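A reminder from the course coordinator: this example appears on the midterm review sheet, so study it carefully.

Given structure:
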C-alpha cells in the first residue's frame, strides 16, 4: 500500500518526493560488514596468489577459505548471528544428551540417506564426471567421508539446543524407519533444500578453478596501454569474486550462522526458469535453442580502432559486472538460488529487487550488440529476438522468486519499501509515465 505520509502526488498523478520521505528501510538479514570481511580475505589471497604465481586447484580452494573464514568471524563475533531467534536455537535451554539422542539418530539417518541419494545421482550422471564438473566430483570425493563422520557429533550437539529438533531431516529419517508422526510437507521441503544445494554447489565448484586460474595467469603488461585487456581483466576479477562468495554461500547453510535455508521454492515455474539457465539444462549455451551468438561479434570487434570508445564501453561493462559481483557479496554467507535464507535490503538491494539480473542482462546486450551482424539482417533480427527471450527468462525468474519470497512478511515489507524508494522502480515508473492514480 502506498503511504500518503511518505509520498505525494502532483496534479498529473505522478509520484514526487517530499520532505516527509523518511521512512526507514527494513532491516537487512545480513550486515554490510560480512561481505566486506569476505571481500578483504579474497583480495588478500588473490594478491598473494598473483605474487607467487599460485594458480592451481588448491590455491582456488584456499581462496574459498579466505572468503569464508572472515565472514564467519564477523557474523559470530560482531553481528552475533548465532543469538538471533531466526536460528531456531536457544543456547540457554540445553537438554541432556539422552533426551535428544533418539531424535538425533533419526535425523542422522535422514541426512545420510539424503546424501547417499545425491551421491547416486552424481555417480549415475556421466555429465558430472566430464570437463570442469570432474573437479567438483573430486572435491566431493574427499569431503564426503569427512562430512559423514563430522555430522554425527554436530547433530548430537546442536539438537540439544534446537527449539524444535524434529526438522525435515528427522521426518525423512522417521519415514525411512517406518515411525509415526511423519509430515510429508516437511520431507518435501527437506528434499527441495538439498536439491538446490546439490545442483548448484556442483556447478559453482566446477567454475571455481578455471576462473581463478584465468585471473591469476593474466599478463598485466598490456593493461596500461590496452583498454580492452584492462576491461577483460577487471571483468574476470569481478567474476572471481562472485564465484567465491556464491560457492561459500552454498556450503555454509548452517543454523548457528543463521544462514540455513528457511525454504526452497515449492513452485515448478521457479525451478524451470532457474534450471534452464544452468548446465546440463541450459538453453542459452552454444548450439542451444536460445543461443543468440551466431552472426554476432563482441564489442571489441565493432569498436576496434577507436580507443576512446573502447575505453568508455569497457568501463561500462566493468561497472555492470561490478554491480553483479556486489549483489553477490551483499549476501555474505547466504547466497543461494531458489531459496529464502533471510531478506536482503542493503547494498544494491536498496535500489532494486533484482540488481544481479538487471546488471547481467545489460552486460549481455552491451557486450554482444545483437542488432549489429557479421552476416545478414535476418541474423541480426534473430540474435536480437533470442537475446530478448533470454532477458524474458530472467524476468520470469525474478517474478517466480518474488512469488516465493512473498510468502515471507519481511520480504513483503521490503518490496513495499523499495517500490516507493528504490531507484530502479522509480526510474521504471518515470520511463513508463505510470500514474499512481491508475495503479
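Designed residues:
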Amino acid at each position: 500500500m502506498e503511504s500518503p505520509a511518505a509520498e505525494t502526488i502532483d496534479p498529473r498523478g505522478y509520484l514526487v518526493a517530499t520532505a516527509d520521505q523518511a521512512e526507514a528501510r527494513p532491516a537487512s538479514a545480513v550486515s554490510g560488514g560480512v561481505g566486506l570481511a569476505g571481500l578483504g580475505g579474497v583480495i588478500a589471497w588473490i594478491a598473494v596468489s598473483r605474487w607467487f604465481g599460485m594458480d592451481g586447484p588448491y590455491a582456488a580452494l584456499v581462496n574459498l577459505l579466505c572468503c569464508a573464514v572472515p565472514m564467519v568471524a564477523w557474523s559470530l563475533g560482531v553481528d552475533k548471528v548465532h543469538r538471533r531467534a531466526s536460528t531456531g536455537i536457544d543456547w540457554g535451554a540445553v537438554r541432556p544428551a539422552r533426551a535428544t539422542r533418539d531424535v538425533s539418530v533419526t535425523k542422522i539417518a535422514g541426512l545420510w540417506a539424503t546424501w547417499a541419494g545425491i551421491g547416486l545421482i552424481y555417480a549415475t550422471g556421466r555429465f558430472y564426471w566430464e570437463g570442469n564438473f570432474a573437479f567438483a566430483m573430486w572435491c566431493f570425493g574427499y569431503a564426503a567421508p569427512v562430512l559423514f563422520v563430522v555430522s554425527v557429533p554436530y547433530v548430537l550437539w546442536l539438537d540439544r539446543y534446537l527449539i524444535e529438533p524434529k526438522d525435515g531431516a528427522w521426518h525423512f529419517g522417521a519415514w525411512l524407519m517406518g515411525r509415526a508422526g511423519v509430515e510429508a510437507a516437511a520431507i518435501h521441503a527437506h528434499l527441495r533444500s538439498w536439491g538446490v544445494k546439490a545442483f548448484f554447489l556442483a556447478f559453482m565448484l566446477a567454475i571455481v578453478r578455471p576462473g581463478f586460474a584465468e585471473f591469476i595467469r593474466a599478463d598485466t603488461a598490456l593493461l596500461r596501454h590496452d583498454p580492452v585487456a584492462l576491461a577483460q581483466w577487471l571483468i574476470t576479477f569481478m567474476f572471481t569474486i562472485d564465484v567465491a562468495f556464491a560457492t561459500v554461500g552454498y556450503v555454509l547453510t548452517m543454523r548457528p550462522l543463521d544462514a540455513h535455508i528457511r525454504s526452497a521454492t515449492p513452485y515448478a515455474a521457479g525451478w524451470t526458469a532457474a534450471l534452464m539457465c544452468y548446465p546440463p539444462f541450459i538453453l542459452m549455451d552454444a548450439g542451444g535453442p536460445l543461443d543468440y551468438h551466431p552472426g554476432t561479434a563482441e564489442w571489441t570487434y565493432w569498436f576496434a580502432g577507436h580507443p576512446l570508445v573502447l575505453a568508455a564501453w569497457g568501463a561500462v561493462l566493468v561497472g555492470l559486472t561490478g554491480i553483479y559481483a556486489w549483489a553477490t557479496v551483499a549476501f555474505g554467507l547466504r547466497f543461494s538460488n531458489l531459496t529464502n535464507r533471510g531478506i536482503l535490503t542493503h547494498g544494491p538491494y536498496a535500489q532494486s529487487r533484482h540488481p544481479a539480473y538487471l546488471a547481467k542482462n545489460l552486460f549481455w546486450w552491451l557486450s554482444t550488440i545483437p542488432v549489429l551482424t557479421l552476416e545478414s539482417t535476418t541474423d541480426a533480427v534473430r540474435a536480437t529476438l533470442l537475446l530478448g527471450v533470454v532477458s524474458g527468462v530472467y524476468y520470469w525468474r525474478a517474478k517466480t522468486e518474488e512469488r516465493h519470497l512473498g510468502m515471507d512478511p519481511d520480504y513483503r515489507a521490503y518490496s513495499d519499501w523499495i517500490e516507493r524508494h528504490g531507484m530502479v522502480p522509480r526510474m521504471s515508473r518515470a520511463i513508463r509515465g505510470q500514474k499512481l492514480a491508475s495503479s
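The chain has three domains: 31-79, 86-217, 222-439. Residues 184-217 form the longest helix (34 residues).
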